[in-house]
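User: I'm putting together notes for a lab meeting next week and I want to include a structural view of one of the chains we've been expressing. I don't have a solved structure, so I'd like a prediction I can at least talk through. The sequence is below, exactly as it appears in our construct file.
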Amino acid sequence: MKKYIKLLNDKKLPKSLAYCLRISDQILILGNGGVKATRTYQEDSKLSGYVMDLQSFDKVLLKAQKSGKVTIEKNMITDIQSATFEI
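Assistant: Thanks for the context. Below is the predicted structure for the 87-residue chain, given as structure tokens.
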């Protein structure tokens, strides 16, 4: 399962990207994105920042899951409303 994916818009529009974090087959966290003007997202500081934000969130979410602060089930993340996350 690929953890970080990108979604492309209609081919008639400029190439725009929306980065997502796939938690399970039923849980997809939609991140930010924008118009792709470079060959890779790493070449664009804005897009690269969006990906780094998702990667950071993935790490703190995994840490919270391992510590028992949140539970990730097939289609639900429980106790996330009361959880605090530290990077």
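A couple of points you could mention at the meeting. The helical segments are 45-66. The chain has one helix and five strands.

User: Perfect, that's what I needed.
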